[in-house]
Amino acid sequence: MPINAIITLKSDGPSSVNGDRIRLLEAVAREGSISAGAKEVGITYKAAWDWIDALANLFGQPMLATRTGGKAGGGATLTPAGAKVIEAYRRMEAEMARVVRLIEPDLAGSGISPLNLFSGYFMRTSARNVLRGTIVSIDADTLNADVGVAVSSETTIHATVTAGSLKDLGLVVGREAIVLIKAPFVMIAPGIEPPAISVANRISGRIARIERGAVNAEVVLEVGGGKSLTASITAHSAEALSLQEGAPAFALFDASHVIIAID
Fold first, then answer.
1. How confident is the model over 65-91, as pLDDT tens digits?
2. DSSP letters along 224-257, please?
3. For residue 3, is it within any domain?
4. For the chain, how big is the Rg over CA atoms in Å?
5. Which pLDDT tens digit goes with each residue over 182-203?
6. CB-CB contact of 60 with 149 (8 Å)
7. DSSP 3-state of 103
8. Is 1 part of a structural domain of the chain?
9. Which domain holds residue 218?
10. 34-41 and 19-31 are packed helices; what angle lies between their axes, rounded to 10 degrees?
């Protein structure tokens, strides 16, 4: 039975580039809106936004340009970055298929498939927030280090790592890095002034979306440069804080809850 190469690049965590997310971008480009694109690929409007946000965080640029209302109505089109991501992915997919065809005969009878080989090269993580940036500061002692990663011109996220990790990962100022934060670790505080709370990260932004459930709520905060942070809080907290889309707010989380990864 022939094996087809289906690429999923997951070394950066959940903000991965896979066929489903590429198909969503292609569908939005054809249909001219996120809701229509989501319907074409069989996912919810919320899931579509999650995928689009994840790709923007991964590449540091928005994949889509959106417009709201007006005589022409709302809609979405690919940005140049979005078009390049689709083109590059399809080229990699074609090259991977070629490589699979080349090595498959050599593995015949060994009990090893090309899929076994390739799957070991990628890593998964359950972190909801995965943002690429550049290390701009390192404050280290003999045990630990505070590493500042600028994920946009407006936002720097701080992580606490051990001195051993600092060395093993080769973290230095100027190097690209990826920060990962689980959504339940992120607290939300409304307003334009940061609250007096002892956390290293107090990231200002504007609430882009709120998804309310019976028990929990998911709050997406735009933090500049096309990047966003997602917090998972209780529905009661969202109600008590009177959180509203479009309102200013802060994402709060401790540096010890931030993981740093490198390519």
1. 987 754 444 689 999 999 999 998 888
2. ETTEEEEEEEEHHHHHHTT--TT-EEEEEE-GGG
3. no
4. 20
5. 999 999 999 988 888 889 999 9
6. no
7. helix
8. no
9. 127-263
10. 130
